Amino acid sequence: MDQQIAKIITGGEYLVDEPLSRHTTWGIGGPADVFVRPANRRELTGLLQFASENQIPVTVLGSGSNCLVSDTGVRGIVISLAGTLKSIHLDNGDVRAEAGVMLGHLVRRCLQAGLTGMENLIGVPGTLGGALMMNAGAFGEEISSHLVKVLVLNLEGEEKSYLRDDIQFGYRSSSIPPDEIILEAEFHFEAGSRPEILERYKQVSIQRRARQPLRQRSAGSVFKNPASGLSAGKLIDQAGLKGTRRGDAEISTQHGNFFINHGTAMADDIAFLIKLAARTIKQQFDLQLELEIRTLGFEPGFWEDAGLA
Ligand SMILES: Cc1cc2nc3c(=O)[nH]c(=O)nc-3n(C[C@H](O)[C@H](O)[C@H](O)COP(=O)(O)OP(=O)(O)OC[C@H]3O[C@@H](n4cnc5c(N)ncnc54)[C@H](O)[C@@H]3O)c2cc1C
User: Fold this and answer.
1) Residue to mutate (ligand 1; options 44, 121, 133; most atoms within 8 A of CB)
2) Domain boundaries in the chain?
3) Which H or E element spans position 51?
4) Whose CA is nearest to atom 46 of ligand 1?
5) pTM metric for this prediction
6) Are strands 137-138 and 141-142 parallel, antiparallel or unpaired?
7) Among residues 23, 60, 63, which one has the least CA distance to residue 44?
8) Is the CB of 25 within 6 Å of ligand 1?
9) Distance of CA 190 from the midpoint of ligand 1 (Å)
10) Catalytic annotation present for 75
């Protein structure tokens, strides 16, 4: 397989048995059989066609800021668009950006152009592709709010596009099929007052720093807030779980929904704490929490004993 991939990925990067801990913000995760960062769409399309013809499983990763990868890693090909496919075009309020663009970069480009609508998302790590898949949001704003169109590639390497209304966006979810790869998206933003946008940007950054353990390795919020309007972090705090540790994994003492890797935590340690939190919240408050993070490489049914999918 490696030699055939080498013929397709001539400008990009491909690595065999690559530890995914190098590609997640948690710094956790076993190896991918092959890890590929294609240089351009032609390489990506060629790779998908090769994988499809040879029935090799494909997994897509952005910058791994919302993923827990198992200690045994992921079989087949893992494709990352972080650091590649990163062009941005601005034309008045119309903005077109490729999926590998870092969200923070896109927010700053909009700010510089005096466009309003993205400033609340400053500080959300990750790529545009990951943000769209997760419908990333903060302070009442979601990435889908100003979306016009999304271009995707299916696993056979064929392109197709969705208009905003073709996609159902929910709380940290989108109906874009998990076997499609987002290539680029178009947005429309209104012109705003630059000083006001900058002020909002600063306020959001200050609030984030005050509330979240941003200097430690995490994947942001592990659980979704329950539909009843409660906060998962506050429930975990009320259950007395903040500061609970297993090895180098800890439920943050600052924010109950952030789980920290202090250095050498394994996926197994984080999974233990996740299950402990879900079971405790179920017992104490009769509430079933749901995962916000995406889990990769775990055996089917691994999460079921804690009521998690
Ligand atoms: C400190 C911290 C703070 C955070 N704060 C927030 C917050 O305020 N709000 C919020 O919503 N999130 C937050 N997050 C979570 C995370 O940053 C977002 O979910 C982000 O949008 C994920 O982007 P990513 O590129 O890292 O995606 P990844 O974590 O790599 O992937 C997430 C999912 O998207 C899929 N995916 C990625 N790229 C593509 C693509 N091109 N095509 C198809 N599927 C793709 C993956 O398969 C996976 O299922 C935070 C995380 C951290 C570490």
Assistant:
1) 133
2) 2-80, 88-210, 232-306
3) helix 41-53
4) 61
5) 0.96
6) antiparallel
7) 60
8) yes
9) 25
10) no
- CATH for 88-210? 3.30.465.10
Q: How far apart are CA 44 and CA 28, in angstroms?
A: 25
Among the listed residues 174, 218, 221, 252, the single catalytic one is 221
The single-letter code of the amino acid at 184 is E
Q: Contact at 8 Å (CB) between 223 and 230? A: no
What number is the average pLDDT over the span 151-171? Answer: 94
Q: Does the 232-306 domain belong in CATH 3.80.10.10?
A: no
Beta bridge partners of 168: none
What are the tokens at 53?
Answer: 């013809």
CA distance 184 to 196: 29
Question: What is the per-residue pLDDT across 232-246, written as a single tens digit (0 to 9) for each?
Answer: 999 999 999 999 999
| C-beta neighbour count of 275 within 10 angstroms | 16
Q: Is 100 a pocket residue for ligand 1 (Cβ < 6 Å)? A: no
At residue 53, the pLDDT reads 93
Question: Fold for domain 2-80?
Answer: 3.30.43
Q: Is 37 a catalytic residue?
A: no
Show the DSSP H helices in 113-193 as ranges.
Answer: 128-134
pLDDT on residue 134 = 96
Identify which of 149, 140, 144, 162 has the alpha carbon closest to the alpha carbon of residue 103: 144
Beta 74-80 vs 58-61: how paired, if at all?
parallel
Q: How many residues does the chain have?
A: 309
